Amino acid sequence: MEKSHFFAHLARMNLIQRWPLMRSVSTENISEHSLQVAFVAHALALIKNKKFDGNTNPERIALLGMFHDTSEVLTGDMPTPIKYYNPAIAEEYKKIELAAEQKLLSMLPEEFQEDYAPLLDSHCINKDDYVIVKQADSLCAYLKCLEELNAGNHEFAQAKKRLEKTLQTRSTPEMEYFLNTFVESFNLTLDEIS
Predict the structure, then answer these.
(1) Is 19 labeled as ligand-binding?
(2) Is 66 labeled as ligand-binding?
(3) Is residue 80 a known part of a binding site?
(4) Domains of the chain, each with CATH number or no CATH
(5) Which of 12-16, 67-71, 76-80, 107-111 has the lowest mean pLDDT?
(6) Is position 60 annotated in a ligand binding site?
(7) Is 18 one of the annotated binding-site residues?
(8) What's the Cα-to-Cα distance from 48 to each of 40, 53, 57, 64, 176, rounded to whole Å?
């Protein structure tokens, strides 16, 4: 039986720090971030289905959220201002991400690669599901900015402004519902939400 290093790599998600160029009050790794994205993506899918006549699979979308940054165990987390500095860099980095996805997929025993491809390979992911995960990813980054700003860390002020624009461009009724229903609580203290 051939040995697989797939899950040993995934276990290293907790070693990949997000926001590597930012001074953070509370550090965040991609494992923590991916779980939060899964929670939020699941909620967005439920909201879409229950409030806006959607027909999504919330559990599948939650899984996509869990796996959405797994390629970063091979690439690290590239800061957004660098990743999208210009179209050429963005295009080249996308190629690196795709290669990392394929490398991760190849680490699995062959009989499971087909099962994991729709979670790991961005070419195989349903585009409508991907949109929801990207919305959740942006929302979670925005929530991180709120957390840092509320802790007095102004390092995240520009990131918050940038993410507000991103949220506007990715806006959907379910995202607006989430923002209006859940986000204000992130500005409150533990006593205020208890």
Answers:
(1) yes
(2) no
(3) yes
(4) 6-181 (1.10.3210.10)
(5) 76-80
(6) no
(7) yes
(8) 12, 6, 10, 16, 11
